[in-house]
Specification:
It comes from Leptotrichia hofstadii. Keywords: Hydrolase. Pfam families: NUDIX. The structure is a single chain. This protein is an alpha+beta fold. It has helices at residues 6-19, 24-35, 87-99, 168-171; strands at residues 49-59, 62-67, 74-75, 78-80, 103-105, 114-122, 133-144, 158-161. Strands 1, 2, 3, 4, 5, 6, 7 and 8 form an 8-stranded mixed sheet that branches.
Length: 178
């Protein structure tokens, strides 16, 4: 499945605001940015706005995190939404690539698991020939896919962390513990 238009993303965000009303102001600001950006620009690495998606996946009382190779900080497994993908597909793909474990949509969650959206300022990265830009990051609560056998090789160093061990930005996600 792929993103057909900006209206789909805005509707997805409006649904999130219904479930998480405290996000309404942030969602309005992000929706405005989406309205000002052409869908094809999200796939252009030279654009000032990129779409990304993150996976919030728990094992017992801990959440999976990775060490970002360029920013050198602990973050959720995440990455750019690629051509032909929906943000939920990106979150699932990036979780597998970065941790080596399989994840899937949590069927108990509303709005296919979208629990947050953030605007993240990304510094210039000469290695990727990317200028300073922002990511509109869709964050999905997923579950481990234990029906899938084995583990793939992880691209990044990953950690299972308790709420007390993570940056305050991520504390609110622990309310979604199974």
């Amino acid at each position: 499945m792929k993103i057909e238009n900006i209206n789909f993303l805005k509707k997805h965000l409006q649904n999130l605001a219904e479930y998480e009303p405290e996000l309404k102001i942030k969602i309005e600001k992000i929706s405005e940015i989406l309205s000002q950006t052409k869908i094809e620009d999200f796939r252009n690495r030279k654009s000032k706005v990129h779409l990304s998606a993150s996976a919030v996946v728990f094992k017992n009382d801990k959440c999976y995190f990775i060490k970002h190779p360029y920013l050198k900080t602990i973050l959720l497994p995440a990455g750019h939404v690629e051509n032909g993908e929906m943000p939920i597909d990106t979150a699932i793909r990036e979780f597998v690539e970065e941790t080596g474990f399989f994840a899937k949509i949590d069927e108990n969650m509303q709005n296919i698991g979208l629990i947050d959206v953030n605007m993240i300022e990304i510094p210039e990265n000469p290695v990727k020939s990317e200028g300073e830009h922002i990511h509109i990051d869709f964050r999905y609560k997923l579950v481990l896919d234990e029906e899938r056998e084995g583990q793939k090789e992880a691209e990044l160093e990953w950690f299972l962390l308790e709420k007390r061990e993570v940056d305050s930005e991520f504390n609110k996600y622990y309310k979604y513990l199974e």
